[in-house]
């Protein structure tokens, strides 16, 4: 699925096909579990809990923020703060899974 063009952005259909290939390969659940373990080990989960608590506190408490608002506030921080090593590991696993399901192409 990867393009040799540095600014290539796959279309929704490409992403859907890739997701289906990975789902059929049966590796998605193990990749998710491995990422979860890595994020806990590096302290990312604790950082996100702290960010959520700070966000709630800055709004004046739980009664003053909806779950949807909290998710929006914390999501960008969460994505940005995933260590590069974990992102690289996930990308490598995804590429391997796609290559295996494509017959090594």
**Radius of gyration over all CA atoms, rounded:** 17 Å
Overall number of strands? 0
User: What is the mean predicted local confidence, pLDDT?
Assistant: 85
Biggest β-sheet strands, sense, barrel: none
Query: Helix-strand pattern, N to C?
Result: HHHHH
SSE layout:
Blueprint: H1 12-25, H2 28-41, H3 44-59, H4 67-81, H5 84-101
Helix pairs in contact: 1-5, 2-5, 3-4
What are the key terms here?
105 residues, 0% strand
Task: Characterise the protein shown here.
- With 105 residues, the chain is mainly α.
- It contains five helices and no strands.
- The protein has helices at residues 12-25, 28-41, 44-59, 67-81, 84-101.
- Helix 1 packs across helix 5, helix 2 (28-41) runs antiparallel to helix 5 and helix 3 (44-59) runs antiparallel to helix 4.
Report a brief summary of the structure.
This protein is mostly helical.
